[in-house]
Amino acid sequence: MGGNVKPITMAAVVAGVLAALVLAVAVVLMVRLVRTRKELRRAGLPTGPRWVFWGAVLYFVLPTDLVPDPVYLDDIGVLLLALRTLRSTPDRRMVMNPPRDYGE
């Protein structure tokens, strides 16, 4: 059976498996983004600009991308950027380390 597999068929199978793995990574990042935003809101911390979160969600969900959707690398990049932005908002650092008021 191994000798009867055509190289094109094998390449298609490998491409399909890689596409599924990249999609799985993108879905995991989307879940992490949503959980991070939810945890920040639950803790009463600022979640950064709303457009960053919703822009990343829309970019992931909508079919129009910079790169066609079987290749989710651009989606992964947008999700990672949004996750990084949520985690490093200047407002969040201010809440975590508020400035001291020496006047009191």
TrEMBL record:
Q: How does it sit in the membrane?
A: Multi-pass membrane protein
**Domain of life from the UniProt record:** Bacteria
UniProt entry tagged with the keyword Transmembrane: yes
Domain (DUF1232): give its ranges. 50-81
Q: Tell me the keywords, alphabetical order.
A: Membrane, Transmembrane, Transmembrane helix
Q: Give an example GO cellular component term for this record.
A: endomembrane system
Coiled coil start-end = none
| Major site of localization recorded for this protein | membrane
The membrane spanning regions, by residue number, are 12-34
Checking InterPro entries in the record gives:
DUF1232
Location in the cell: Endomembrane system
Which Pfam family would be a valid example here? DUF1232
| Keyword Membrane carried by entry | yes
Tell me what this protein is called: DUF1232 domain-containing protein
Record organism = Streptomyces griseoviridis
